[in-house]
């Protein structure tokens, strides 16, 4: 099959490109390299089934493909807040352009939404039936509301224009090839621990996240594309940890001696996050296999090599 991946040079996208090539598909990777990098995909460049197109998803594009995965969008708070208007445009115009192509050529479009659609959730754990608690005018809104609007577009194209959509809500995902400057909690703590720098906990570190290893996520995305289910479906690892617990784990696994410093909690930072993955189990026969210790170990090995 011929498969288009927008955002294919990013963290998740590059792993997805790699897996689909391994499975014998032809992959077109479309990216503007805002947060992604050529380094992430350079090991794939010799593959004759791999093509890279430098383009922004804000502008329409045209490829004769059998499937579209729409991943283009910065995922890390410091990056999506650099140019919030651009983030909204990437989400909304990016979704429209992917959906228009899917409609024109009659292929399915998998859209990567996020646990951020639940905002600072009042329901715990979060299941797909929960409509969320998002501050529509806050600093995270460009991403949260952009992603919510993209979901709206997916379901309108599905109902009104018969496009085969698949919407997944990704929870915090980590692993090799996270960018060093990503600013996310897992990469920050590992880099700080390996460099012997202070571990920066925002707030008191009591907020929780549920961390999914990249290989599990890629498997979930491919299973969703293969299914007849439109979603939305949560993809994430339900094991929940506080940021404080994560810091302790990373210090132990790296044998790190860093001190911990406490900094201001960013605005609208969600207090808790845990996916209810019963729907993914039922519809996709998917659940994560890699536990946090194992996944962190692999990620630490990666950062030891690149730092
Ligand atoms: P990433 O920042 O590593 O990758 C995003 C890719 O999209 C990058 O290669 C970037 O250059 C590209 N991109 C950004 N704006 C673009 C534009 N306007 N036109 C073309 N390309 C553009 O992020 P990631 O972690 O790989 O996330 C991939 C997708 O998954 C994103 O849509 C993100 O919102 C979603 N997601 C990720 C997580 C996570 O924990 N990593 C959680 C929830 C949702
Ligand atoms: N965080 C932290 N220190 C850091 C980076 C992040 O304490 O150096 C916190 C952040 O405030 C949030 C959690 O860790 O509560 C997860 O942050 P991340 O950026 O990974 O993603 P989010 O799930 O918030 O999108």
UniProtKB/TrEMBL annotation:
Protein's GO biological process: D-xylose metabolic process; UDP-D-xylose biosynthetic process
Listed Pfam families: GDP_Man_Dehyd
NAD(P)-binding domain boundaries: 4-299
Cofactor: NAD(+)
GO molecular function: NAD+ binding; UDP-glucuronate decarboxylase activity
Entry protein name: UDP-glucuronate decarboxylase
Membrane topology field: Single-pass type II membrane protein
Major location category of this protein: cytoplasm
Keywords, comma-separated and alphabetical: Cytoplasm, Decarboxylase, Golgi apparatus, Lyase, Membrane, NAD, Signal-anchor, Transmembrane, Transmembrane helix
């Amino acid at each position: 099959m011929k498969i288009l991946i927008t955002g294919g040079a990013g963290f998740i996208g590059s792993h997805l490109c790699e897996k689909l090539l391994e499975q014998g598909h032809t992959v077109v990777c479309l990216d503007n390299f805002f947060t992604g990098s050529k380094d992430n995909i350079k090991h794939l460049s010799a593959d004759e089934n791999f093509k890279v197109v430098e383009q922004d998803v804000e502008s329409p594009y045209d490829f004769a493909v059998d499937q579209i995965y729409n991943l283009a969008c910065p995922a890390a708070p410091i990056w999506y807040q650099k140019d919030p208007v651009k983030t909204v445009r990437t989400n909304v115009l990016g979704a429209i352009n992917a959906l228009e192509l899917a409609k024109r050529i009659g292929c399915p479009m998998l859209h990567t939404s996020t646990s951020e659609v639940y905002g600072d959730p009042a329901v715990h754990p979060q299941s797909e039936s929960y409509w969320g608690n998002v501050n529509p005018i806050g600093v995270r809104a460009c991403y949260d509301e952009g992603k919510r609007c993209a979901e709206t577009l997916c379901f309108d194209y599905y109902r009104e224009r018969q496009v085969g959509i698949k919407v997944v809500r990704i929870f915090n995902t980590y692993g090799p090839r996270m960018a060093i400057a990503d600013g996310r909690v897992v990469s920050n703590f590992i880099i700080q621990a390996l460099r012997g720098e202070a571990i920066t906990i925002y707030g008191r570190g009591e907020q929780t996240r549920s961390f999914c290893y990249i290989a599990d996520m890629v498997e979930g995305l491919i299973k969703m594309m293969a299914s007849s289910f439109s979603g939305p479906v949560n993809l994430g690892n339900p094991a929940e940890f506080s940021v404080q617990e994560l810091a302790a784990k990373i210090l132990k696994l790296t044998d790190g001696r860093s001190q911990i410093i406490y900094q201001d909690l960013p605005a609208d930072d969600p207090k808790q996050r845990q996916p209810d993955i019963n729907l993914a189990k039922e519809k996709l026969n998917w659940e994560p296999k890699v536990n946090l210790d194992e996944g962190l170990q692999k990620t630490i090995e990666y950062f030891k090599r690149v730092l």
